[in-house]
Amino acid sequence: MSYARQFLDTYPGTINADAGVLAAAIDALSDCAQACIADTEADLSEQNLAEMVKCIRLCLDCTDVCTATMGIVSRQTEYDANVARPLLQACVAICKSCGDGCERHAPHHAHCRVCAEACRRCEHACRELLDALR
Amino acid sequence: MSYARQFLDTYPGTINADAGVLAAAIDALSDCAQACIADTEADLSEQNLAEMVKCIRLCLDCTDVCTATMGIVSRQTEYDANVARPLLQACVAICKSCGDGCERHAPHHAHCRVCAEACRRCEHACRELLDALR
Amino acid sequence: MSYARQFLDTYPGTINADAGVLAAAIDALSDCAQACIADTEADLSEQNLAEMVKCIRLCLDCTDVCTATMGIVSRQTEYDANVARPLLQACVAICKSCGDGCERHAPHHAHCRVCAEACRRCEHACRELLDALR
Amino acid sequence: MSYARQFLDTYPGTINADAGVLAAAIDALSDCAQACIADTEADLSEQNLAEMVKCIRLCLDCTDVCTATMGIVSRQTEYDANVARPLLQACVAICKSCGDGCERHAPHHAHCRVCAEACRRCEHACRELLDALR
């Protein structure tokens, strides 16, 4: 069982969504941030650097938004829809763009295929959480 | 002159807003993140800890959202309104809440007054940037 | 297979340690940061708040150091022992302290037991990486 | 007066160094992180991208280490020399490398000159804090 799920099962506060949906989002956000950090570094190691610049910027943006979103949705007790909802919408948008950008490089760079998968999973998990949040 | 303004004046890419408004937002976001980190620590040092818990959570959320927003608005070349606008809206919302929360403690805790000022300034600068962004 | 291992297996740059040891460290650092964010929030939800303050501060420190260390060891191409080694030493020290602090609360708070496990695993993985790095 | 100094002057906890030296370090760490984020973006906008890759990686590392160090030295009450000292040493090392790397590009790229200044100031402020910390 993931740490996120273990924490939600032992959390003394109130959760504003189904615990399984929330844990899946926290795990996907953490994995996506980690994948984007790794893909930025791998992109910087490629020969066709000029073609990778857009992908690098998208990965940097995706790292920042996923990291912040993981923090905000982990703190459920002062949950505020006016913060969490637009943040999750920004996160869906950057995961979509970053996933699209990485997919374009996937035929030539295996690391971009791995990053695209992490972005797709995170986009999906954040959409599910947006639907599930009260 | 602040570093943010010096960078925008020497930036080889394209900026999607007035440089003065953007630099003011970057500086306010950086200052607000720093203030919220410091206020979290000061809150944890107070005697009336149970009354400070909400303020601590708001400061933690505000740190995370300001840090991510600073990164996203600093990367202007792949500017995407679908990411930047909801993120700035989330940032306005948490700066408003955190500023309100800190202001309530300002009569008794001078550090909360300082944090409230940083939050108010950041909320205002993010609203201005939302209006200025193309 | 974890994302970290998939990235190292497709990384076009040079790795300065055994890929398995490095991937284990990256995964443990990411999990430990996530666990400490969750435990901070759970601690703030407890009744005996005054007794939890030290644990909260250790978790905040551990989050920050693990996050930075994950970034630095993920960027292997400009690897610099003068940066990576003291950072890993700082990370071992805070994971040890935070693990000890959480273990003390483990009999009463199940979330602290989960966090202690993540800290122990991260401390161990960082020690292994320190030994493995050239 | 900077926010860092205002917070230290209203901080209810114990400080383990001269308040002026500590405030100068917190301000320099915050500014250096902000400068390195901006310089990464500016570097990615340059034509001679292959020559900028090392500078980009150093700026990414410097952002991560400065951000973590700012958090750790801001939380003075559970100050632990075994964490703070190696972290500050890692920070001095990456600020030195990043400052050197940026200075090499300063004749051609004004943004690298600005970043080099922020790195030099941060390296100096962290050395002063290392000397001042009990």
Question: Can you describe this structure?
Answer:
Four copies of one chain form a homotetramer. Chain A has 134 residues and is mostly helical. Helices cover 80% and strands 0% of the residues of chain A. Chain A has helices spanning 3-9, 19-44, 49-74, 81-105, 110-132. At the A-C interface, helix 1, helix 2, helix 3 and helix 5 of A face helix 1, helix 2, helix 3 and helix 5 of C.
A few lines on this structure:
Four copies of one chain form a homotetramer. The first copy, chain A, is mainly alpha-helical and 134 residues long.
Main traits of this protein?
elongated; homotetramer; 80% helix; 134 residues
Q: Which consecutive residue ranges of chain A, at least 5 long each, have pLDDT under 50?
A: none
Q: Please name the two chains that share the biggest interface, counting residues whose Cβ lies under 8 Å from a Cβ on the partner chain.
A: A-C, 34 and 34 residues
Question: What is the succession of H and E elements of chain A?
Answer: HHHHH
Q: Kindly, what is the distance between the CA atoms of the first and last residues of chain A, rounded to a whole number of angstroms?
A: 25 Å
Oligomer: homotetramer
Q: Could you say which structural class the secondary elements and strand pairing of chain A correspond to?
A: mainly alpha
Mass-distribution shape of chain A? elongated
Integer average pLDDT of chain A: 96
Strand content of chain A: under 5%
What is the number of E strands of chain A? 0
